[in-house]
Amino acid sequence: MAAQHHDDGHDPNLAHHFESIEQQSQATKLGMWVFLATEILFFGGLFVAYTVYRGNHPEVFIFGAHFLDTALGALNTVVLIFSSFTIAWAVRAAQLKQIKLLKWLIIATMLCAFVFLGVKYVEYSAKWKHGLLWAGSYNPHVDHEEAFEVIEVEGEIHTDDVDEAVREIDVIQPVAGGEIVEPAAAEVEIEPTPVVADPDRSTIAPAARGPEGLAGPTPATDPDAIPVEPANARVFFSIYFLMTGLHGIHVLGGIAAMMWLLNCLRRGDFDGGAFTKVDMVALYWHVVDIIWIYLFLLLYLID
């Protein structure tokens, strides 16, 4: 017969449908592991999609990786690894009834989560600014100085962008005496300048890189070079935003769970040494951290 839980000796941490704290703890752990298994399956499908696309179009991922900030990705990795340490320490503090330490460790883990989201905001803002977005929103562009390069050759002003015949540009021209004058913006009619092949250079295109080809300079030959944009480059950014965005939502879920722990702590749920709630949140947070480590390796460190 199930024990009565409504007498004066009832443990407030014991739910009415469990006979003992041990039984409740085992059931909670089983439920959490089942939930984490579904999370792994969920992200596993995304990793399979990543593998298929990267296997068929490696040039797309090599190209896209050049627009990710490896330093910021590494910073977020360090932040999450440290947060795993603090939440694991929080579990130990709960076991030892170190309530004050437990509180500060949970807060430290939350702060790490907020730092992570702040860094992701910086990354996302840069992608948004340059139009490096997902699917139909992919519309890459750069600053005016980068997109419109004025070149002076043998006294003539021309541009590498000849789609429009007339542009408003700042013209810098030499005058008598060798002085340089910078007149105000003027409307200059620009005519395409025929490209004359250099007879001393081969006209054979550089060797392709990857199954679909990546012609042109690459970081292997020129550290400052960006590979030529391949077809379907938007696929990389679609996968990037899908995987990192869903991971970010899980980080928000972790923050909500830690706020719940702080509320439980305020109620005194951990005064008697109960730690199952902290342990379950820590398990969830460890999985979130592990998923990010894989994302960092697969998206940021392709080259």
In words, what does this structure look like?
- This protein is mainly alpha-helical and 303 residues long.
- The chain folds into two domains: 21-139 and 233-300, Cytochrome c oxidase, subunit III, four-helix bundle (Four Helix Bundle (Hemerythrin (Met), subunit A)); 144-189, no CATH class.
- It has seven helices and six strands, in the order αααααββββββαα.
- It has helices spanning 21-56, 58-65, 70-95, 99-129, 144-147, 234-267, 276-300; strands spanning 150-153, 156-159, 166-169, 173-174, 180-181, 186-189.
- The protein has a two-stranded antiparallel sheet. Strands 3-6 form a two-stranded antiparallel sheet.
- Helix 1 (21-56) runs parallel beside helix 7 and helix 3 (70-95) runs antiparallel to helix 7 (276-300).
- It starts with 20 loop residues before the first helix and ends with a helix.
Quick rundown:
The protein is mostly helical and 303 residues long.
Structural class: mainly alpha
Indicate the overall shape. elongated
Beta strand count: 6
Give the overall pLDDT as a whole number. 74
Give, in spatial order, the strands making up the sheet with the most strands.
1-2
Percent range of helical residues:
40-55%
Separate helix tally:
7
Uncertain residue segments: 1-7, 143-178, 204-219
CATH-scheme architecture of the largest domain: Up-down Bundle
SSE arrangement, N to C: HHHHHEEEEEEHH
Separation, N- and C-terminal Cα atoms: 63 Å
Proportion in β-strands? 5-15%
CATH topology of the largest domain: Four Helix Bundle (Hemerythrin (Met), subunit A)
Number of discrete domains: 2
CATH superfamily of the largest domain: Cytochrome c oxidase, subunit III, four-helix bundle
Q: Describe the biggest sheet?
A: 2 strands, antiparallel
- Output the radius of gyration: 29 Å
Under the CATH scheme, which class of the largest domain? Answer: Mainly Alpha
